Amino acid sequence: MAWLGIGYGGLLVMALALGTYVFFIAKNALGEFTANPRKAAVEFVFSGNPALEEVSHGDAKGTMTIRTKSGEEMTLSYKDIAEGKITLKGKDGDVTQLGSQGLSAVPGWVPKPADLSGGISLFHADSALEVAGQFTAKSPMDA
Questions:
Q1: 46 domain residue, yes or no
Q2: pLDDT tens by residue, 81-116
Q3: Is 37 helix (H, G, I), strand (E, B) or coil?
Q4: Are residue 12 and residue 58 in the same domain, yes or no?
């Protein structure tokens, strides 16, 4: 029990030092979050995914470029992600949209029932070779 030899004063000093350290870490994290909450939220989400690596971010444009384990790089918009709209832009010009998007990205030849409502969820991939996707919404039509 050698640690008892430092006394209560030593324990108090160590507790104050640790408390000060934690306070400044929390203050810096909160400062970054309040300065750009969209960026902080997006970086928090992607930092927990080991399959994704941040390549760069452009605060002026509000974008972040990420790289997958396969080496593909994509640029994301902080604003779109915060609104539930994810648009991935690949180096080769391919664009993939996910999330709560409108139906404007759906080609005109795709049948769409009238009076769609609810949260319209969309997956849309557009490349030089093909257009692929699906959408989900509510319709008052009877089955």
A1: no
A2: 777 777 777 777 777 777 766 676 677 787 777 777
A3: helix
A4: no
Cβ contacts of 45 within 8 Å, gap of 6 or more: 81
Residue 8 counted as domain residue: yes
Each residue's pLDDT tens digit, 41-67: 777 767 777 777 777 777 777 788 878
Output the CA–CA distances (angstroms, integers) from residue 55 to 36, 52, 59, 87, 95, in the order listed. Answer: 19, 9, 13, 17, 18
The C-alpha atoms of residue 68 and residue 38 are separated, in whole angstroms, by 21
DSSP track, 17-28: HHHHHHHHHHHH
Task: For residue 54, give both structure tokens.
Answer: 């941040």
